[in-house]
Amino acid sequence: MGRPSRKDDILQAALACFSEQGVDATTIEMIRDRSGASIGSLYHHFGNKERIIAALYLEGVSGYARLLEAGFAKVDSAEGCIKLLVACYVDWVLENPDWARFILHSRGRVEASELGEQLRETNRLHHGRIEEILRPYRERGAYREMPRDCFVSVVIGPVQDFTRNWLAGRTRTSLADCRELFIQVAWDAVRAP
Amino acid sequence: MGRPSRKDDILQAALACFSEQGVDATTIEMIRDRSGASIGSLYHHFGNKERIIAALYLEGVSGYARLLEAGFAKVDSAEGCIKLLVACYVDWVLENPDWARFILHSRGRVEASELGEQLRETNRLHHGRIEEILRPYRERGAYREMPRDCFVSVVIGPVQDFTRNWLAGRTRTSLADCRELFIQVAWDAVRAP
Amino acid sequence: MGRPSRKDDILQAALACFSEQGVDATTIEMIRDRSGASIGSLYHHFGNKERIIAALYLEGVSGYARLLEAGFAKVDSAEGCIKLLVACYVDWVLENPDWARFILHSRGRVEASELGEQLRETNRLHHGRIEEILRPYRERGAYREMPRDCFVSVVIGPVQDFTRNWLAGRTRTSLADCRELFIQVAWDAVRAP
Amino acid sequence: MGRPSRKDDILQAALACFSEQGVDATTIEMIRDRSGASIGSLYHHFGNKERIIAALYLEGVSGYARLLEAGFAKVDSAEGCIKLLVACYVDWVLENPDWARFILHSRGRVEASELGEQLRETNRLHHGRIEEILRPYRERGAYREMPRDCFVSVVIGPVQDFTRNWLAGRTRTSLADCRELFIQVAWDAVRAP
DNA sequence: AATGAATGAGTGTTCATTCAT
DNA sequence: GATGAATGAACACTCATTCAT
Asked: What is the chain A residue with the closest CA to B167?
């Protein structure tokens, strides 16, 4: 355990700023101010702003991936897998709303940065892992047939769209209240007819 | 008609820049350079950067609304309405990819600006209009029951997610090729059981 | 004539700073302060510090070249040419001590910058021009034989070394007082035995 | 002897950096990186950057002085002394090109630093020593009459100018190949008529 | 309507130096 | 002697915006 290191202080402060103001509107000075670190310390640990962003992004994505992986261990049906994808998504967002807001708005930004390739590689692995889990069921004809990239959007699109709105304070309904709905909708959308 | 005015030159140049670089990364100088206008002219016509963004945003949204309105005139079934929402979305994106990219990434930005209220009002009207069209069918029990804000996400979420990926060059499948798929998926997802 | 333009104000202020503090120790703020221009104006005209340096360097070199060219028109002997090279050097330095100090200390700096190639090209032309003037006499055997690059150092080396010391305040004798001496020394050093 | 100490590692690394990048462009971090020492160690040994520069400068100058002193022991003519000055200069540069590049470009820098006085004192001693050697010959009328400060420039100016160009890679001829030429030129320039 | 020189607050970043371990 | 995290003043540069012509 131990108390959070200076490096973690900085990351946490940065995440809060990014979530509240957006990445571009967040200045190094704001992160410095909120973290209590000095500018020098900030650059000593990260080198530049881009790398703070990337570190946070990759850490966030990997948190979701870990949650998903834990779930995969307990699931063994075509239906369970699909529902898990949505359930984990909702649970992770509810647990990490700042991280979710940041990640949903910064993907393009990180992809275009010097660490873009690393992110794309991470995403490839992530999708590969999901595909690996789903393949047996797919081959067994458990899912409606459609291109892979469409499949992902059909499963996750509805919750993701709702999540964006919820995080922006644009919904009347709360995300927690429609967790089951989106889980069911996803399964209905891809189950074989 | 006539040839495009200086004002239109500027808007078009701005849209191209926003689409390619993002709103924050686009400088007035870039727009000036691409439009061929002078800085003075630019400020003469729009006053500031925020208003260029807003003008473009509202014009884009209204283009989609007009397309939808034209469709509503020819449709008179619960199924037709839902399918129209998705079809128009796809058609508009295919026709205006730059505009789509810009709008999908700048909503939060514009909402937070001085023109945010105007945008929210526009959105209220837009959703109100759609609601007005759907209400008779909903009351008749043609659609699965769920909160309004979830309903919208269920209908548009899948295409929108796919569209984001397609616009970012992350899909293998092209948007045009899965138009029918997303239309059908949307209808299946909300039709009453 | 008209009063000096903003651009000239900046160049003049920069030259004074460079001469007094050295190029590296001169900050943009110092130039701004001394020129009375704003930072924005400074960057509007020059783009970056490197380009202010280069503009000044090239202008300085070309001033000396013009002086030399004017002299060539009036000279028609092997001896006259050599003496002219040294005389012009001294006269130009006496007239432009700041420029001389700056140029003598910044050659490497400018050669290593993005404008290095332009400078090298300018130098090639300059040396080519001198060579063109000297060639007839050289072919006639008026000068001691030695490699071209050594010849230049033999002619200009003594004055240049003294000039460096004089500009740095390290000499007891003043440059003006030893003008004739260095002129004679140069001629004695390269005349054919 | 023994293996080079940490302190020497640092000096050697600093010299390489200064020679390649120039003194101002060299950061403590570069020296740390190249020497393998830690920042703390670096400051433990030298206190600050200025003192690294000065240590290197003075050590370099004294190397040349030692070489010269060794030569003086074997020379006993007006001609021999002058030729020795140039010969030692060339030999020392050929042996220590990095040091030569550094010293030729940093004199002003060191003179302006907190150790400037020390350097000036060293130079006074150096010139005094040379003067002491030359005085008998001068009094005997072996050398052309001219102010002391001009005399030095006449003797050393040509080689020094050539050396600057050679170190910067601007010459076609190599320094070793024109050693004899510059030795002879120096003697011809100052011998009594 | 158009032009572009001028402005200056604000930004990311650098780097010599300090100091607790 | 050695280490490297921490510091913060200072820097070059950006960019939306103003305004005289």
From this structure: A108
